[in-house]
Structures are given as C-alpha cells and as structure tokens.
C-alpha cells in the first residue's frame, strides 16, 4: 500500500466521472481530505477492498451527485461528505460499523439509504446532524 498526495491506493479500480483510474490501486483506505474541494467530481465508485473513508475525504465536492460504497467499507470519517450539496442519495452498506460525527453535514438534498435495520450503537449520535431522511433496512439488490 502506498500513499500519494494523501490519497491511499487500493485493490481494484476507482471510477471517477465514468473513467477508470488506478489512483487507489492496492490501498485499503481513502485518506483524510483526499478529494477535498474536487468540484470536478460528479460520480465516484469506490473499489471493493477499501475499508475506510477518511475525515473530510469528499468534503465540499459540490458537484458529486453519485457515489457507490462497496461492502468492504467499515468506517466513514468525520465530515466525510460535508457540503456535498449535489448528492441526492447514498447507500450505506451493512458492513459500515462506524460513522463519525458530521459525516453528512450540509448535504441539503440527501436521502440516506442504510442496509442495516437500525442505527448501530457505534455510529456517533451526530453522524446525520441535519436530520436528512434515512431509510433503514434498504436492500440495494432489490432497488435495481
């Protein structure tokens, strides 16, 4: 595993705006602030093998409208998606056991779909500080 410009490389391909990138090849985490204020990013598919999304990893990615989080992710850091104002929906896999505070602060249009039936006790109380709608027990396979 290597880190370049605070971007950790992972197993698999990172897909940004429909283009495959090996930017995260061989890594298990997305570093703190890795994509901070990258307003050019509209969609991202995190590769399987990534276990954590760091603090402020996608903060102020104001054009980010689509993100796919794989079942390998277990942790989402503080302010990870803060001010992702174009993000309308996100699915949190059941594998996520920790979400730090303020992860979805100021995501004004966001609906959060969670595969878990109820909020895990290990998620910080203020993970969803703006009380965006949360759909518990979401099955992404059935949603097509």
Describe, in plain words, how this protein is organized in 3D.
This protein is mainly beta and about 140 residues long. About 0% of the residues lie in helices and about 25% in strands. It has no helices and 13 strands. The strands form four sheets. It has a four-stranded mixed sheet, with no helix packed on it. A hairpin with a 2-residue loop joins strand 3 (about 15) and strand 4. The chain starts with a strand and ends in an 8-residue tail after the last strand.
What attributes does this structure have?
0% helix; 144 residues; 24% strand; 13 strands; globular; 4-stranded mixed sheet; mainly beta
According to CATH, the homologous superfamily is: Ribonuclease Inhibitor
DSSP helical segment count: 0
Number of domains as seen in the coordinates: 1
- Taken in chain order, the helices and strands follow as EEEEEEEEEEEEE
Query: What is the CA-atom radius of gyration, in angstroms?
Result: 14 Å
Uncertain parts: 1-11
Main sheet: which strands, in order across? 4-3-6-8
Structural class: mainly beta
What general form does the structure show? globular
Mean pLDDT: 87
How helical, in percent, are the residues? under 10%
CATH class: Alpha Beta
* Straight-line distance between termini: 34 Å
Quantity of strands, as a count = 13
CATH architecture: Alpha-Beta Horseshoe
How would you characterize the largest beta sheet? 4 strands, mixed
* CATH topology term: Leucine-rich repeat, LRR (right-handed beta-alpha superhelix)
Report the β-strand fraction as a percent range: 15-25%
């Amino acid at each position: 595993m290597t880190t370049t410009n605070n971007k950790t490389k992972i197993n698999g391909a990172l897909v940004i705006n429909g283009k495959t990138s090996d930017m995260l090849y061989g890594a298990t985490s997305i570093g703190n602030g890795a994509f901070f204020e990258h307003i050019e990013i509209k969609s991202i598919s995190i590769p399987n093998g990534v276990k954590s999304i760091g603090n402020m990893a996608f903060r102020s990615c104001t054009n980010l409208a689509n993100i796919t989080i794989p079942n390998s992710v277990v942790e989402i850091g503080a302010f990870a998606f803060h001010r992702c104002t174009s993000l309308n929906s996100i699915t949190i896999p059941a594998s996520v056991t920790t979400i730090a505070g303020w992860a979805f602060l100021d995501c004004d249009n966001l609906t959060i779909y969670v595969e878990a039936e109820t909020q895990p006790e290990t998620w910080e109380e203020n993970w969803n500080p703006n009380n965006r709608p949360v759909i518990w027990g979401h099955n992404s396979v059935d949603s097509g």
